[in-house]
Amino acid sequence: MAEPTRAPDEHAAEETETYVYLCTSCPLGCRLEGDAVDDDVIEVRGNSCKRGIKYGTQEHTDPRRAVSTTVWLHGGPCERLPVRAAEPVPKQKVREFVQALQGLVVEAPVDFGAVVVSDVAGTGIDLIATREIVSEHGRELVG
What is the spatial distance between Cα 9 and Cα 60, in angstroms, rounded to a whole number? Predict the structure, then answer.
């Protein structure tokens, strides 16, 4: 006697979604395709180097962006100080991160790599100077 057949359970099968990214971790700019099931990356294709796999996985699970900008400078030979985030900022926090810098004025002198602001916008990420600035009043540098 044959066993009765059951209708396939629609929710039992795992749905694979494919995502497409442009890798920016090296100058090649590979077009990556990533397959994910329930937000878990199971495969990354299209990479020409090992960094592409890491980038594709990171971009899907926790996208981050490098942030570089300038802030106002007082007492130096120029009006703006170039700065950057010490590490990539979560993509959903970039706008908040940059807005937290509005109106910020840094006093010269400033050493290259000095932490200008700690824990910007509650991200735990510091803002660092990317240029050494001497004071208008002398060549003395205070870090």
Answer: 28
